[in-house]
Amino acid sequence: MVEIDTTAMTFSLAMGMGLVFGLGPCNISCLPYLGPVFLARDGGLKHSWRTIVPFSMGRLSGYTLLGLFAGLTGQIIDERLDTPWVPMILGGATILVGLSLLFSNKPMSGCSSSSVTSSRFSKFIPKLNIKRFLPDGLFFMGFGMALNPCAPLNKVILAASATTSAIAGFTLGLGFGLGAILVPAVVFGVGMAYVGNQLRAQMAEWRTTLERTSAVMLIFMGSGIFIF
User: Fold this and answer.
1) What is the DSSP letter of 149?
2) Looking at the domain assignment, is residue 3 inside a domain?
């Protein structure tokens, strides 16, 4: 493995590291979060941007903030991220996305148990339209993922801290973020959106069940992150 001189880190190098990260590990780590969203949400390729854009912007904001903070303070902030509030952001956002999807999907026909559940939920908190929280939930889901540094990001943060410059740190974090979100945006915005749409079409009879199950999976996954 080639050692990278963090003192010579540039925007293009940070972006290249993010791009390499986005080609492999990032896609795997994003799958449990974005996969169920595309299974639970209608729209296919045409509307995949509604999921990809807020999620990617959340990740980009997280990476940029890490670089900015490291450059501003001149400190490596890896240890500072080992706090309960980091998983609380990711877990809470995942739960919010799951709830938004669960109560935004309408049954195809008739009065199913899911529609009864939605009705009871709406009566319990009548002034809360949880469907509106989906873009925010996706944003903070991406933001929370960015706050779990990987090895390439750690090098970028180290380089940012060495600059002792907020602008330089911001630039390095932005470069890494742009590279990191590029490939997953294409893979999930095109590939997963297409696969999800095809599965929904092939399983039309079980469509509502598929949507609800995917949403519940996100809620349980977020609860696990939030609690543990």
Assistant:
1) -
2) no
Which DSSP string do the residues of 64-84 spell out, in sequence order? HHHHHHHHHHTS--TGGG-ST
The answer to whether 193 touches 44, Cβ cutoff 8 Å, is yes
Residue 5 covered by a domain: no
Residue predicted with more confidence, 151 or 159: 159
Q: How far is CA 181 from CA 31, 106, 110, 188, in A?
A: 13, 31, 41, 11
Domain count, the chain: 1
**Which residue range is the domain that position 84 belongs to?**
10-227
In a domain, 53, yes or no: yes
Instruction: Give the CA angle between residues 111, 134, 25 to the nearest 5°.
Output: 120
pTM: 0.84
Q: Could you tell me the two tokens for 17?
A: 């590291």
| Residue 28 token pair | 């795997």
Please enumerate in sequence order all residues whose Cβ is within 8 A of that of 49, keeping only pairs 6 or more positions apart, or say none: 189
